[in-house]
Amino acid sequence: MWTSSAHTAQWAILVTRTDPEVPKHKGMTYFVLDMSSPGVEVRPLRQITGEAEFNEVFLSDVRIPDAHRLGEVGAGWQVAQTTLMNERVAIGGNAQPREGGMAGVVARVWRERPELRTPELRDRLVRLWVEAEAFRLAGSRLRQQLAVGQPGPEGSGMKLAFARNAQALAGLELELLGDDALRYDDWSMRRPELVDFTGREAGYRYLRSKGNSIEGGTSEVLRNIISERVLGLPSEPRTDKDVAWKDLPR
Ligand SMILES: Cc1cc2nc3c(=O)[nH]c(=O)nc-3n(C[C@H](O)[C@H](O)[C@H](O)COP(=O)(O)OP(=O)(O)OC[C@H]3O[C@@H](n4cnc5c(N)ncnc54)[C@H](O)[C@@H]3O)c2cc1C
Predict the structure, then answer these.
(1) Which of 221, 229, 233 gets mutated to test ligand 1 (max ligand atoms within 8 A of its CB)?
(2) pLDDT tens-digit map of 122-142
(3) How far is the CA of 58 from the centre of ligand 1 (A)?
(4) Which end of the chain is more exposed for a tag (fewer CB within 10 A), N or C?
(5) Angle ∠(149,155,157) on CA atoms, nearest 5
(6) Can 51 be counted among the known catalytic residues?
(7) In which domain, by residue range, is 7 found?
(8) Measured from the CB, is residue 3 less than 6 Å from ligand 1?
């Protein structure tokens, strides 16, 4: 489900359950899957934006050579953690110039349409602009740390901040534009190769940014990671940690 760009990908990540006798985080094995293998079927999933940038992927009797396994048998969760940490940095820690991305788009509307301004909207724009700038600089520091090692749980903070800021800016842009924001440029069902936040209209940005707090780990799950692994707070009660996967209630 929700496999981004599966319609264009040559390779996919496949984390499989290979041992149901052990607890859920154990017993998984990580493979790279050649998407041109016989039995791989990719079906588009149409999103709230009208387009389908992700897909459902069905595998019927697909065979993967052991040479395409990454890591040890049963160590798939650890490999997946590294993948997820990198994905979060890629989503939240992009290199941007000042006023790049959504902050720049909204600031441009503000400058070009003085008749839309109110003191309350100004306060919100300045607050979000400062937030965007703070996490842009934090992202630059994170990328320097990455140059000498693997991303840690700090990347989750970047991704969380990015999602909150992007959604708030997209909402502000809509409010600024009022009735004009109700226009939607293109509802045709397309399968884009890239997600372009700044190349389309405000309505697209507003709808697409809803996915920012889900993709690459939901904001709730990222808050758990930050509280447990960055702040060292007590962990959530977990009753399934020592139970074999096959015995979990479902
Ligand atoms: C644009 C987009 C692209 C995506 N691309 C991909 C992709 O390429 N590959 C891929 O595999 N997936 C992809 N996804 C799926 C995405 O990774 C998952 O939807 C996401 O990780 C949430 O998992 P879930 O849907 O199973 O929700 P669940 O884990 O079932 O969560 C449901 C709700 O419960 C909350 N929740 C769950 N556990 C906890 C907890 N312990 N504490 C507090 N709250 C909790 C969640 O925050 C959420 O609100 C994509 C999603 C989007 C929106």
Answers:
(1) 221
(2) 999 999 999 999 988 988 888
(3) 19
(4) C
(5) 150
(6) no
(7) 3-75
(8) yes
Could you tell me the sign of the dihedral formed by the alpha carbons of 230, 236, 237, 240, in that order?
negative
Structure confidence by residue, pLDDT tens digits, 66-85:
999 999 999 999 999 999 98
d(CA 1, CA 3): 6
* Cα–Cα distance for residue pair 246/92, rounded to 1 Å: 35
pLDDT tens-digit profile of 99-114? 988 999 999 999 999 9
Number of domains in the chain: 2
Q: What are phi and psi of 42, to 5 degrees?
A: -115, 120
Tokens matching residue 60 = 């019927």
* CB contact set of 203 (below 8 Å; sequence gap of 6+): 174, 181, 182, 183, 184, 185
Distance CA 42, CA 17 (A): 21
For the four alpha carbons of 85, 93, 95 and 163, in that order, the dihedral sign comes to positive
Task: Supply the CATH number for residue 216's domain.
Answer: 1.20.140.10
**Is residue 2 classed as helix, strand or coil in its secondary structure?**
coil
